[in-house]
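Before relying on records like the one below, remember that each one covers exactly one chain. Contacts with other chains, cofactors or solvent are not represented anywhere in the record.
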Amino acid sequence: MKATTKTWPWKLLLVVILLVFAAGIWGAVQKIDYHWRWNRIPQYFLYLDEEAQKIPFDGTVESIRKVGDDAEVTLLSDNSQRLVQTVAADSINVDEGDLLFEGDTVGFVKEWRIGPLVYGLWTTLWISAVSSVFALILGLLTGLARISNNLTLRGIAITYVECIRGTPLLVQIFIAYFFLGTVFDLSRNVCGIGALALFAGAYVAEIVRAGIQAIPKGQTEAARSLGMNVFQTMADVILPQAFKKIMPPLAGQFISLIKDSSLVSVIAITDLTKSGREIITSTFATFEVWLVVAVMYLLVTSVLSQVVFYMERRFAVSD
């Protein structure tokens, strides 16, 4: 009872702050001379595509037979060749006995298709997923090299980490596409994934290094005293313990990579951000599109954050 009494004023204060913030945004929006076009947005998630079915020869319509929502149109050419075309029943442009010429439209085939926003989101997700896998492998190897006794390996790892972390991701993407892509004849997808993987790999390397060094040295000494070699000690003793410690920052890095992937749109990869820009050029619904794109990014990262939070609790129970 006392805990409830102490916390309710803070909850009330939180609600008041959120309401004031929402009211401020609403007031600012009202001052903008802008015509909102929310009705144009849904078609960019899912739309009904209509493909015209044309007659490939001169001929006549022999018969029309309805089959559910579709219709089978039998066409007869001048040399007695028959062709059956299936179109949507409500889109038929001809009647039985009509004389048609090559290229005339018989009707339309209607099919639901995903819009550019969904396609862009899918592109963002798979590019981020592939980049994350390569970044994890690269970061793990680099992190191990960072703590290696071999001066050459350690020097290469330090150089890589400092160069990548010291330059903007946008510049790295340009170098990967315009320089490396041109020299080695690489596609824009390969360049984009490579740049993201190299960028995230440098941060993963530092996370891995910190996680390994957080494990007490006594763990290594105990494993070696049991006859394990360096590889067995690292794979069976150190890394499993380090993984539990580094999972939160590692997951945060990969979630951040989803947002960073929006920069690959500058090299004409049709991800969610580029899809949004293309929609804006045809609808002029600037605010609506960017708000929807932002919400889509937010939903993806929020779901992944909840998954990571669930995994953290499971690992905590296993401890």
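The beta strands are 46-54, 59-67, 70-77, 82-88, 99-100, 105-114.
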